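Chain A, query sequence.
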Amino acid sequence: MQKTAAKEKRKSGPALQNILYSAPNKKEYAFFFAVAVVFYFAFAHPDITETARHAYILLLSTFDGDFLMFFENTLSLKYGYIYSNAAHYNILLYIGYAVFELPLFIVEKLFNFAFSDNFLAYWCKFIGTAFYVGCAVLTGKIAKLLSFSEEGKAWAPLLFLLSPIAFFTTVVMGQYDSICLYFLLLALTFYFKKNHTAFSLLVGVGAVFKFFPLFLFIPLLLLVEKRPLHIAKYGVYSLWLLLPTSLLFAGRTGDANVFTAIMIERVLAVKFTGGIMNYSVFGTVMACVCAFCLLYRPKTDEALWQAALYTGLFVFGTLFMLVYWHPQWLILLLPFMLLAILQNKHQSSYFYLAVLFYIGFFIAVAAVFPGALEWNMLNNTELTKALVLNSARRTNIFYFYLFPLIAQATPILFHGALAALLLFLFPFRGSTFGERLSNGEEAHKVSYRLVAWGTFATAFCGFWLAPSAFSFLKTLGYL
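Chain A, predicted structure.
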């Protein structure tokens, strides 16, 4: 009996090792996409409903010969669609959505039929979700370009797809910051190939959808280019779309300029107390980052790659530590965080910190936006809107606050974990500060399968889905 048991244990060992440490398979991806489809149709944030209808207004304005008055038309409610916000983003974003909606627009005109706001939201939600999948593909491509381990290359795309924040903001919320991130990552693939012209032009495409890529563009450019005229040349390349499309609607932007000013103020809101005036903490940090990148001259390609990934992590990491962020923006940080971790040998501790970061994110979202990212999204879906009541509603934060000191712990979870990642992933003498502290010894071998699915289950399911479902059922009177 003992020999039989020992023999069975020896047989089960390799099988378990294969489950834990093998590359992701087709069934795994199929299961992920099946889960994603369920969440895609179960939730939708009001923002995507507004954007979908704004694109529809652009079609109406264009066919009425009123294209240049599009922003004014959304503000003045010319076509009667009443939403909380007018159109605020660059015209190319709305053109993209309008082209995607054109088949629906034609069907409506031919058959005198009107699609509902919810249907339009589902239709347009596909764009942000598709770019999210594209970001995962590019994350894997960058891992291959930078000669990561075979396991890291294989798992990089699924680690991004299962990142709780990326999944939440795109598949669940339907937000579209994945568009500007996609072009930023695509630009990086050319950056690592030393094609700086293509890098600059593609950053310029991403900047049209959100200006965040420009924050990273300047430091990355300064890492590889020290000549002022060439820096200026690439800077002009990065504005090749943003500048003309902004000038096209000069004086006809509705309240888009006011919105842009508010966003800039949010970025610069945290300030030092100065001698004659206060000044932005994030702006000062960015100035120091740019000076560092201008002075630093990587000796090898590997040193440049490490510095570039860490710069992305640091720029977006400090951004989200110092600004009043919107949850959808956090997707910008994720590929740099994941790639910086995968680039290091000592990974297990960093993945633990990432889990704490994700959990802190969901609790912070529940606290700062109570009900906005659970009930609002239920209100915008065909599957659940009939069940939503107008009576008093339970929200996630109600349950989180049942635990003592949760309000005090939340900032530590989010900002503490992020600060630790920024500190210990800092490149230091051919490795990182964290690796130097540990003498290069890993705590234990990392199972990327456990990391990917365990992080998703713990952070997303445990700290957003479960409380949301419980509060929903509680409000409906089922619990």
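The chain has a mean pLDDT of 88. The two ends are 50 Å apart (CA to CA).
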